[in-house]
Amino acid sequence: MIRLPAAIGALFGMTAVLLGAFGAHVLEARVSAERLEVWATASHYLAWHATTLLFVGLGTGRRLNRWLLSAAAWCLTVGIAVFSGSLYLLVLTDQAGWGAVTPIGGVLLAIGWAFLAAAIAGARPETS
Prior knowledge:
Layout: H1 3-25, H2 33-58, H3 66-93, H4 102-121
């Protein structure tokens, strides 16, 4: 078990709930419908990747390559912080420049998924 990704995943899950509610109840009357969609996208990506980090941290066995799992966890963690974080900042500041940062987070998320796939594909068979 890799505890740190699971803890980060749990915190990201909590953050997704809180920021999703903030967007739905506080920002609704303060930003445009287009910006609310951006906020919702950030919250959805945050929640999905929080769940993935929980899997990485709690659902792993000794048969998976720990280096690949660790690389996946770090790419997913930084990727979601950059991806969702830049979208949240774009909505809160109304500065379109934050949108230019978002793809960096997306690339890190994709790399994280690739590391996770490699760890799963290369899993050692169980011995009886």
